Amino acid sequence: MEIWINPACSKCRGALSLLDAEGADYTVRRYLEDVPAPDEIRAVLDRLGLEPWDITRTQEAVAKELGLKEWARDAAARDTWIEALAAHPKLIQRPIITADDGTAVVARSEEAVRDALGRG
């Protein structure tokens, strides 16, 4: 199990605390420093069953600078969104936990973290 975090994020710290309390075996990826490549983002999106705009933090300053709210949200625009997430990792919603069973969750709640734990 791997968790993508921003250490400054309270939701990330909460997820880590819960994982630790449950004795989970996981690795931490500080995705702002160890930026995921576009192919890694695609793989996580597939595991999440989501599209890139579903995991984009549209309230970030860079999102506003890029005008993301006006971007198309369709198959033709998918790669453009993924490239933007790779170029500006701060836009990636956090934390994301990739479970050992091949799935992933956006773990912003205790329930979502527990869901990931149940997947192994």
Describe it for me?
The structure is a single chain. The chain is of the alpha+beta class. The chain has one domain (2-119): Glutaredoxin. The protein is 41% helix and 12% strand. It contains 5 helices and 4 strands, in the order βαβαααββα. It has helices at residues 10-21, 38-48, 61-66, 78-87, 110-119, and strands at 2-5, 27-30, 96-98, 104-106. Strands 2-1-3-4 form a 4-stranded mixed β-sheet, sandwiched between helices. It is globular. The termini are close together. The model has no long low-confidence stretch (mean pLDDT 96). Belongs to the ArsC family. GO terms for molecular function: arsenate reductase (glutaredoxin) activity. It comes from Streptomyces tabacisoli. This is Arsenate reductase family protein. It holds the Pfam family ArsC.
Sum up the structure in keywords.
single chain, 120 residues, alpha+beta, Glutaredoxin, four-stranded mixed sheet, 5 helices, Thioredoxin-like_sf, Arsenate reductase family protein
Walk me through the topology:
Elements: E1 2-5, H1 10-21, E2 27-30, H2 38-48, H3 61-66, H4 78-87, E3 96-98, E4 104-106, H5 110-119
Parallel strand pairs: 1-2
Antiparallel strand pairs: 1-3, 3-4
Helix pairs in contact: 1-5
